[in-house]
Specification:
126 residues, 33% helix
Length: 126
């Protein structure tokens, strides 16, 4: 995946925005003010850090040498993925969506509805 395709994939998620709170080289992708992805798009090799369910994070690291504990992040909840060609675009996009979903799942239902999030629970019947 190219840096441009990666940036596009991040920004295609509803409500996603690109910010630069740390430095001009590090793109920080947020939804509702919460980080779901960090990457230096000009980095060689290209890497991205993504939020991940702790149990899944360990499984992914064991199965893929290009996936490691989040660099400078809580390694229990974040993975850093090196895009060296060993991780399929499909797996990367699934991990990106999972990271986004972990953030949006904690938002109030009203905010989830505004984002048109597919995981939003139906309102309880009266």
């Amino acid at each position: 995946m190219t840096p441009d395709a990666l940036k596009t994939a991040c920004l295609e998620l509803n409500g996603a925005e690109e910010t630069f709170p740390f430095n001009p080289e590090t793109s920080v992708f947020k939804v509702g003010g919460k980080i779901f992805a960090l990457t230096a798009l000009e980095g060689k090799p290209l890497q991205i850090s993504l939020k991940c369910d702790p149990e899944v994070a360990v499984q992914l690291r064991e199965a893929h040498p290009a996936i490691t504990g989040g660099w400078h992040l809580n390694k229990r909840h974040w993975n850093t993925v090196t895009l060296d060609g060993s991780i399929s675009d499909q797996l990367l996009l699934e991990m990106l969506e999972d990271s986004y979903d972990l953030i949006v799942a904690k938002f109030p239902r009203k905010q989830q509805l505004v984002l048109d999030w597919p995981g939003v629970k139906p309102s309880p019947s009266h």
